[in-house]
Amino acid sequence: MTSDQRHLARLLRLERVRAAARHAAAAEAAQAESALAQLTMLATRTADLAAGYGVRCDAADGGDLRQLARFTLGLARIGAATVTDVTRAQAVADRRHAELAAAERRRAVVEDRASQAARRIASGGASPALGTRKGFGTGLV
User: Fold this and answer.
1) Which pTM value belongs to this model?
2) Is 117 in contact with 7 (CB distance < 8 Å)?
3) Which stretches of 55-140 are DSSP H helices?
4) Beta strand segments in 1-141, E
């Protein structure tokens, strides 16, 4: 096995490692997107519940009114916390997508290097001619 073939084998192994890292980054990005979608749905449902209870006015006495106000305030606090969680989940999802893009770029670079090495081996290892040498003299020998 020549040094070029060993180099190509190393590049192919590295490409497989980078592909596995890209796959793991894609799974993490999908998981982050799923968590973001769930939290967004939860925030919407909580806001709808708080709005629904906020307009109710069927309290029979002051105790019922106080209980309804406490419940609505609790829902509002839960809604605010959920909105904060959505913002945090959005940042995490964005970071995971950036990591996925970086992993794909690293894999593509190694793939390009491996294909160049394979072409170099296939061409016989000769470097491409940059041009012909300029002749000297008249050519009358």
Assistant:
1) 0.72
2) yes
3) 62-122
4) none
